[in-house]
Amino acid sequence: MRRFSVSALLLLGLLAIVLLSPATARASFGIDPGKVYIDNLYPGGSGEFNITLYNSGEEDTTYNARPRLPDYTDPDYEPFPYLDWITVVPESLTVPAGGNADVTVEVKMPEDAEDYFGRKGEVWISFTVAGDEAMVQIEIASRVFISTRADETASSNATPPSAVNHNDGSVDISADPRETAEKTTSPTGNEYSWTPLIIALGSVAAGIAIYMAVKKRRKGNNQPYNGGG
């Protein structure tokens, strides 16, 4: 029984490592800034900024970066519908252990995009560990808020926090390090469910119970016969 108990504990530990170890990625990489504001965007105009990715883990790690629709937005913003306006370079980068690296994000509004005047949209620049096929995956995203001019000649009156750059005085870019979007997901992008772990733990518990019942029954069958009265 002792040997079986040790084996069961080892199995539980292995399951915990396999299912939960990706959650440690929460502490092993991060980004800055967490929020970026692009104001006064107009047809033909563009804005460019950098996002720094930090790897505080003990191994060099490759990450994927891409724009995607947000899971939620701030009030007054809609999911930004034009992901093709956004370029992330590079889309894959290796960050040394304890180091950092930058990606460059450019948002460019096409010359003929006259149907998006005076609107506000949010898009996420997503970062995930490349090749991570574990059941749990950590995604961190920088939230990008884009607002366009009311018309071709109007200028933005917005005064976003912590201005870090102005692109030729026309398109305003600012950054706020707070409020990154962080999610625990499965490799398919769905929110992770604890169901697999619960099933695994239940299976181990059931196996232990069955083993104990069988052993008790065998022990009862092996009792010496004392004869009849």
Distance between the termini: 35 Å
Counting DSSP H or I runs of 4 or more residues, the number of helices is 3
CATH topology (fold) name of the domain at 27-185: Immunoglobulin-like
Q: Give the helix/strand class.
A: alpha+beta
Low-confidence stretches: 16-27, 154-169, 184-197
Second CATH tier, the architecture of the domain at 27-185: Sandwich
- Helices and strands, in order, run as HHEEEEEEEEEEEEEH
Strand content: 35-45%
Beta strands, count: 13
Share of helix among residues?
10-25%
Main sheet properties: 9 strands, mixed
CATH class of the domain at 27-185: Mainly Beta
Gyration radius from CA atoms, angstroms: 27 Å
The H-level CATH homologous superfamily of the domain at 27-185, spelled out, is Immunoglobulins
Overall geometric form: elongated
- Mean of the pLDDT scores? 75
Structural notes for this entry:
By secondary structure, the protein is an alpha+beta fold. It has a domain of 159 residues: Immunoglobulins (Immunoglobulin-like). 22% of the residues lie in helices and 38% in strands. The chain contains three helices and 13 strands; from the N terminus they run ααβββββββββββββα. The strands form two sheets. Strands 2, 4, 5, 7, 9, 10, 11, 12 and 13 form a nine-stranded mixed β-sheet that branches. It has a four-stranded antiparallel β-sheet with strand order 1-3-8-6. β9 and β10 form a beta hairpin. α1 runs antiparallel to α3. The longest helix is centred in the C-terminal third of the chain and has 27 residues. 26% of the residues are buried. About 18% of the residues have low confidence.
